[in-house]
Amino acid sequence: MIQVVCAIIEHKGTVLITQRSSKMAQPLLWEFPGGKVEDGESETDALVREIQEELNLLIVPHKRLVPVTHTYSSSTIELIPYTCSLQSGNILLAEHQAYSWATIDTLLNFSWCPADIPIVEEYLQLKRMQL
Ligand SMILES: Nc1nc2c([nH]c(=O)n2[C@H]2C[C@H](O)[C@@H](COP(=O)(O)OP(=O)(O)OP(=O)(O)O)O2)c(=O)[nH]1
């Protein structure tokens, strides 16, 4: 199974979400940015590396949420989410089509990659408990 880490980057009451480009797998769907964990790499090292490469941002991972296993037509992934904070950098999109700093109450309005939906739901539940 392919392990994919993704970052829920929280900043000023919003979270960063990204739209996959037409050339990527799951084209034009929205996701939490991240990517595959390489051999010998920790989940959090992979996350920090991917966000630097894809978005030019330095992040700090915090809480690991519940991983989601999802089977797409060509492969099965384990998608492992972490809440993260932003340390520094300005967004430069290397691969994605678009990004949005989305407020919590708009998250369900986006067309998500299917594997992300349980993660969005868990995250919304966490946020409601914190209110
Ligand atoms: N990064 C990321 N990938 C996701 C999410 N949800 C989801 O289903 N995926 C899928 C899409 C891809 O099939 C796979 C991750 O591939 P990727 O293309 O983002 O990873 P990568 O940057 O390491 O890829 P590569 O081009 O180096 O192979 O996981 C998500 O929230 N974030």
TrEMBL record:
Q: Which residues belong to any copy of the Nudix hydrolase domain?
A: 1-128
Q: Does the keyword Chaperone apply?
A: no
> Could you say which EC number(s) this protein's record lists?
3.6.1.55
Q: Which UniProt keywords apply?
A: DNA damage, DNA repair, DNA replication, Hydrolase, Magnesium, Metal-binding, Mutator protein
Q: What biological processes does GO assign it?
A: DNA repair; DNA replication
CDD domains cross-referenced by the UniProt entry: NUDIX_MutT_NudA_like
Gene3D superfamilies attached to this UniProt entry: Nucleoside Triphosphate Pyrophosphohydrolase
- Single Gene Ontology MF annotation: metal ion binding
Catalytic activity, as annotated: 8-oxo-GTP + H2O = 8-oxo-GMP + diphosphate + H(+); 8-oxo-dGTP + H2O = 8-oxo-dGMP + diphosphate + H(+)
Q: Which cofactor does it need?
A: Mg(2+)
What Pfam family is a match, any one?
Answer: NUDIX_4
Query: Which top class of enzyme applies to this chain?
Result: hydrolase
Q: Does the keyword Iron apply?
A: no
The entry assigns this protein to a family as follows:
Belongs to the Nudix hydrolase family.
Full protein name: 8-oxo-dGTP diphosphatase
